[in-house]
Amino acid sequence: MNEVVGHHDILLVTLDTLRHDVAVELAAEGRIPNLARHLPGGRWEKRHAPGSFTYASHQAIFAGFLPTPAEPGPHPRLFAASFAGSETTADGTFVYDTPDFVSGLAQVGYHTVCIGGVGFFNQQGPLGTVLPGLFHEAHWEREFGVTSPHSFENQVARAEQVVAQLPVDRRLFLFVNVSALHQPNWFHLPGATREAGDTRETHAAALEYVDRHIGRLFSAASLRRRCFAIVCSDHGTAYGDDGYTGHRLGHESVWTVPYAHFFLDPAGTDLSETDLAEAVR
Predict the structure, then answer these.
(1) Lower CB count within 10 Å: N or C terminus of the chain?
(2) What pairing do the DSSP bridges indicate for beta strands 45-48 and 9-15?
(3) Over the stretch 237-258, which tens digit does the pLDDT of each residue have?
(4) C-alpha distances in angstroms, 153 versus 41, 55, 57, 211?
(5) Contact 233/254 with Cβ under 8 angstroms?
(6) pLDDT tens sequence across 168-204
(7) What is the C-alpha separation between 58 and 66, in angstroms, rounded?
(8) CB-CB contact of 178 with 210 (8 Å)
(9) Above 50 in pLDDT, residue 137?
């Protein structure tokens, strides 16, 4: 990360509530081609979430505790606060003297931007301001939230605006919390109804919806220079697994999450020339 920070833009996307098993199945079945083309080897990495619900997990993630590889460690971290005795801080770790890597990146010249999704980012009350308050610039609208069938498209459009307005010489750390996977998600599956509610199948359909639009986000994030991207879930969720429903509980469906990091090359490779011109304008 010490070769990335200061030279590349950085994108962190949390696919809020995405289950590992669903993500793996869809990649293997060719149902998320725009994500799969960037996954190392076309596969998600299996990891353990640092928390069982959004607030706890993101507090840990922003402190440098990204989801941990699901195998015995120790596992060197990409980001870490200066902390005596840390066994996961390695030579390549970006070390900062602030409580979180958002402010650590800000200290070295990054403009930090949050595009929120679920309620913990809505800035509608004291609790909803904690996580967005880490950033220079934070965006949330009801159309970005869990009740909108077009939430991710709206978030991507805002990301494109942010990139277009930022001076080219200013490094960017862009964080997007994708709300589409979180319940309610029944409206992403044709034929599903509110009365029938959310299922593992509607959860999968929501991921397919995100995949249809994520190329635009990747292109915006790499429009100005090479970008280092991290895409992961913050936690999973249960749909009747062993009798459990939801999250904020200790079940395999909640603790096991998909993770990937990779580079995005500039020049808007996910956009046509017409779309690229529109994005720049």
Answers:
(1) C
(2) unpaired
(3) 999 999 999 899 999 999 999 9
(4) 27, 23, 24, 11
(5) no
(6) 999 999 999 999 999 999 999 999 999 999 999 999 9
(7) 9
(8) yes
(9) yes
Beta bridge partners of 228: 10, 263
For residue 149, count CB atoms less than 10 angstroms from its CB and return exposed for 0-12, middle for 13-18, buried for 19 or more.
Answer: middle
Looking from the CA of 169 toward its CB, the CA atoms found within 13 Å total 0
Please write the tens of the pLDDT for every residue from 89-125: 999 999 999 999 999 999 999 999 999 999 999 999 9
Amino acid residing at 94 = F
How many other C-beta atoms lie within 10 A of the C-beta of residue 153? 17
3-state secondary structure the chain: CCCCCCCCEEEEEEECCCCHHHHHHHHHCCCCHHHHCCCHHHCCEEEECCCCCHHHHHHHHHCCCCCEECCCCCCCCCEEECCCCCCCCCCCCEEECCCCHHHHHHHCCCEEEEECCCHHHCCCCCHHHHCHHHCCEEECCHHHCCCCCCHHHHHHHHHHHHHHHCCCCCCEEEEEEECCCCCCCHHHCCCCCCCCCCCHHHHHHHHHHHHHHHHHHHHHHCCCCCEEEEEECCCCCEEEECCEEECCCCCHHHHEEEEEEEEECCCCCCCCHHHHHHHHC
List CB contacts of 98: < 8 A, sequence separation 6 or more. Answer: 81, 104, 107
Query: How far is the CA of 142 from the CAs of 95, 123, 145, in angstroms?
Result: 36, 11, 5
Computed over its alpha carbons, how large is the radius of gyration of the chain? 18
